[in-house]
From TrEMBL:
InterPro entries: Alkaline_phosphatase_core_sf. Keywords: Membrane, Transmembrane, Transmembrane helix. The keyword Transmembrane applies. It comes from Streptomyces lividans TK24. The keyword Kinase does not apply. It comes from the Bacteria. Residues 1-27 are annotated as: Disordered. The chain crosses the membrane at residues 55-74, 86-103, 110-128, 165-185, 205-224. This is CDP-alcohol phosphatidyltransferase. SUPFAM superfamilies: Alkaline phosphatase-like (SSF53649). The lineage of its organism: Bacteria, Bacillati, Actinomycetota, Actinomycetes, Kitasatosporales.
Amino acid sequence: MPVITPFRRPPQTAGDDPDTPGAPGPAPLRALTALGARLTHGRAWRSRHPRAAVVVRRVTTALSAILVCGALLLPNTPAALEPNRFARIPVEAVVAAVLLLCLPRVPRLVAAALFGTVLGALTVLNLLDMGFTEYLGRNFNLVLDWGLLDDAQSFVADSMGGATAAWAAVGAVVLAVSLLVLMALASVRLGELLAAHRERAARGALLTATVWMTCASLGLQTFGVPVATTSASRAMEAQAHRVVDTLRDEAAFAKEAKADRFGATPGAELVPDLRGKDMVFTFIESYGRSAVEDPVMAPGVDRTLDASTEALTKAGFHARSGWLTSATYGGSSWLGHSTFLSGLWVDNQQRYRTVTAGDRLTLTKAFRKTGDWDTVGIMPGVQKAWPEADWHGLDKVYDAFDMGYRGPKFSWSTMPDQYALEAFQRLEHGRKRDRPLLAEVILTSSHQPWAPIPRMVGWDEVGDGSVYDGIEAAGVRAPDIITDSARSKEEYGKSIQYSVTSLTQWLERYGTDDTVLVFLGDHQPLARVSGNKASRDVPVSIVARDPKVLDAIDGWNWTEGLRPAKDAPVWRMSSFRDRFLTAYGSTPHPSR
């Protein structure tokens, strides 16, 4: 009778596994084996070095507690980032501790990891809020502002070099990911610690909850702030409200943009009192009220404005000036430009996309609609395709590459304002033409970081811009002032003086009896320069030789000269379009 021998699987060799030669068994088994080996090695190390293991464990626990509590108490504005903010009891920590104590192990691990990840995301948003508050005077918008991060990287590249921008971007991504991972690990660590000492942890949570409720009910404070706080919950609630408000605003603004007081006005009934005039609408980058009134910057800027007023008066020009409240602050200049031109309050990127995608009558487009003006744009800051040109109502746009500049960049600014204005004169304003000119000019030399700053040269010496090589090389470097508030203020003030001088000297030199100049700032400089409580006001001026041009705005009660008085009228920037069109004879025909 044959003997039946049980089947025995031959021992597996290192080369038997098709997934990874040299490793025993299939991939899942290898992973578990490796994890077990590491855990065994860790236990062995702790057995050999018990004191060191205790120190490492306690330090890890302390760091985890500091990380989680610090994130729960972290404010979202730079001004609030003070030590007293971290001497409080966050209710979220108490609630999370109670919840974790009630859960079995696996749900506890999941809940702790989820809590930590959400807390890490909130920390990232708080840091973004700080940055946006510092530079743009507002909080980060979770729906609209991701695209601005790319603009921020481009700004850093233009100001401080491509390598710095690349490392800054990598550092930001690493920081964000690290916060998510570390916060999750720290929360898991603290959750396991609570479970390991459940009774003491429960008593501690109960005591802390009692202290929190007592402090909250009595309004107790320490170092000037309430002891009991719900700051993290309120921050999450604010982010949620911001998202909801943004989505609601999008629909409401789309309806508002379609209702235009002058939308159906025939071209023949638009600005009839300006027929035959060469109109120049000029935006000076970051030219804000602080430049005219801040104790550090105002003396130099005011002297420039007064001297320019006197020089223009000798040349036969007169000016009136007032204040406009910009829709933006510290940056996003295109929001200020579109607000001024459209008569709508364009204070975020979604509104900008909505209004520029429509057929709203802009101030510049009104002149093109008459058929009596050639319309051009001088845009030295535009370095890529700019489809908004048609919305602006511009037949021809000269960007950074169209003006023949062969000199150096001045940080973000592609060319000095004096060169841009001389190119405008050469390419358009100085040409013989059959009809008057409407020009929209953007001057960029006063764009942050205000280093290096150009200086005035003889107008006949401007040439192709090569004259600026030595000026740029001898100027202040951006890294030397970008974190120094005092020096930033000084250099910002100098940049405004340069821009105003360039513009007014151009008018003095090339202006005619039919030239009308309207110029203004697009927004205030960032808070590091203008201050945390600065207004959003910017100066605006109208300059002309023809007295009828200024007589038409007598009812505005603006200040004579280029420097608006402190008590001069302050209007929302969005109101200027309709006031201007009305003052110069336009007849309203609302669109529906």
